[in-house]
What does this fold into?
Amino acid sequence: MSEATEHLDHAHSHHHPSGIKRWLYTTNHKDIGTLYLWFAFIMFLTGGAMAMVIRAELFQPGLQIVEPNFFNQMTTVHGLIMVFGAVMPAFTGLANWLVPMMIGAPDMALPRMNNWSFWILPFAFLILLSSLFLEGGGPAFGWTFYAPLSTQYSADSTALFVFSVHIMGASSIMGAINVIVTIFNMRAPGMTWMKLPLFVWTWLITAFLLIAVMPVLAGAVTMVLTDKFFGTSFFNAAGGGDPVMFQHIFWFFGHPEVYIMILPAFGIISQIVPTFSRKKLFGYASMVYATASIALLSFIVWAHHMFTTGMPLVGEMFFMFATMLISVPTGVKVFNWVATMWRGSLSFEVPMLFAIAFIVLFTIGGLSGLMLAITPVDFQYHDTYFVVAHFHYVLVTGAVFSIMAAVYYWLPKWTGHMFDVTLAKWHFWCSLISVNVLFFPMHFVGLAGMPRRIPDYALQFADFNKWISIGGFAFGLSQLIFLAVLIKACRKQGVPVDDRVWEGAEGLEWQELPSPAPYHSFETPPVIK
Amino acid sequence: MIVSWRMVVGSLSWSLLASTVMADEKSSNDPYRLNLSPGVTDISGQVYDLHMLMFGICVVIAALVFGAMFIAIWRHRKSRGAQAAHFHENVKVEIAWTVIPFIILIVMAVPAARTLIAMEDTSEPDLTILITGSQWKWHYRYMDREVEYYSRLASQPEQIANKLSKGANYLLEVDRPLVLPTDKKVRFLMTSDDVIHSWWVPAFAVKKDANPGFINEAWTKINQPGIYRGQCAELCGKDHGFMPIVVIAKAPDEYERWISQQEAIAREAKAEEQRLLSMNMGMDELMKKGEAVYQSTCAACHMPTGTGLPGVFPALKGSKITTQDQAAHIDIVVHGKSGTAMQAFGKQLSLAELAAVITYERNAWGNNTGDMVQAKDVNAVINGN
It folds into this structure.
């Protein structure tokens, strides 16, 4: 998607290296966005392969394929890769591509830091993945790495896990700083705050969340490191520490992290739905305020992940009520999307299909989240497959579907050519059906009493687990269709598109930039009407 | 989707039928069970009702939202010639859909808070059980009686390895279940010897983490005699999936008979142990008993062939401890090694069992030290001689 832009750069007498050096040294927001997106996709397939191992082992009762210790490494590394390697870098990639184009800027504000924040990421994941091959294996304590399982009782490779999380955190913080500085300083004249596209707004708020909580995660992993290797007792009761304190620190990071992975998705859906409804977004201002209130509330709900740890009654009540409150602004968003579609002029191109699937399936995940907020019932749901179903509905059919919607929506703008629509529809329908066969029955086995993170299970769960595994394999294979679409699109096999691409598209990137968008988006600021 | 739809309909009618004969073994083994069990305590019934209330409200909200959306998808399609309207805000509507959900939340919060307060009231129990989790078994101590024991998975390793067929309660069966009286308020104190575990019995709606170094409380009052099964709910390492919980609830008089009997058995075992101190076992007897103890107690980590898991659990085959200083070997088995997964088995096994398993470890898998360890040798280490 970048060779075609090359002649434009020569016209502006830029010279930059070609081949591998072009990508290593690039400071261009589009190149870096592309790197982030491809990296995220490779990680998505890697983490997905681990999910296939998990589902193959769980296809029937008994141990068939892997040992329990390796099974635990698979669940752990699957989670880490999907959160830090797939979803977060994909959103950063989209921000890189889109924020400058949407606010009328030539590039990101801090291009060299942009290069660095991407290029340390592959090393973080090389370190994490290499730990799987060490004696004792990689991290096997869940992506939540609860102490003391991750300290006194873990393999020595924990040091590598800690180091790689530090690097991922540094990368995320730099990415977030770049987004904030860009949005604050590089908006075109007349691009006032309440004219910002919602994708920009949601990313701005996400970036503040990242800066607030990634250092907390860094602190948590550092304490794990010193507890394990240097004799401290932050989380060791025998030395005056407290293992539950680990969970408070972790989830003080972990809950805002959940919103880091969904707020940009809200932004994407708020861009796509109006386009294919040919109607302005309903309740723009309330969308902005709802995003901000979700972000603020995310700091006071963390302990709802910990209701069974033995909190005081008052604590349980507080975190139950605060958590329930989040459903109000989230509901506002869903209602606004439906109201945008209401009396619109709808058409169902591939991005819209993914967006509609997002609204329905994310809402299912949101409603099961509301059920999980109710402390007395959470005692039954906690650490079962009901929770696994819940967070995969919000993360896979939520965050991941929104990323796919975004890629299909902006891909023609990036390449200048339409992607293979037939293949893309195959990708959508195969994914939609298989993802529900995969995650919907998890609600049932969870309610029937199957705990999460177990390599083997009682016979009563066998039938549903077989269906879940079949759904899992089908969903995994469906993503190869996506790969085919992307490769074809990057080779520009498809009809050239006009500048606006989609009939109802509004915004600077559609109305002020050609397709494909030039290497430096806006060399002179556009006029904002 | 069609398949799961039929299952939903089928199970709804099924659960209506089943609600009258709830909580028997059959219902918990139903392969197409879709829902929480109402359980066998007043609290678990309240939790089930709350769950159904929440579920009902969520279904109604989903039906309204998705209904509106699908009407729009059907009627406001461009292909049907729909022209887009121009509205994009409406303060009244927006206030309404902020305030109405808030009111619904209050409707949910009131009964939830009421149940929660009842669940956390552990005062005035009739009896207290101290539950201690460790990798990967549960220990139960009846605080008011002289009874305590470990409860381990009873499913055979061959069943897990698919070499033997699996029974109906595969992975949900233990060697010694926890026995509780019905109609009595039982208080549980939970703690752990190593990592965090979580004691969960769905039929009681009790799930509480067992944290090392801290004690948590929970309680239950069982309404019906029966067998109730649960599992550890917090990832606790390699065999997290293999530490089930089984509770047998008996009528109070039956329970009383059982616990008195257990106290007598415990006293006799102690006397027998003292008697055995003066006796020596032969090599064959030690090895035979030792192998049995090793396979049930040690093999989960050190592996049945003594090879351990490199980098996680050390090998015993050819190791320094099992082939050299015998006193150090007895010491680590009896007292464990702090800061590692090696537990103190001094209180978990009898003197004869300890002697046998240490002898076994010193002579199996080519260790061939020829050493025989007797109960009195172990007793000497326990008493610090």
Remarks:
- The radius of gyration of chain B is 28 Å.
- Chain B has three domains: 2-78+90-119, 127-272, 280-382.
- The CA atoms of residues 334 and 345 of chain B lie 5 Å apart.
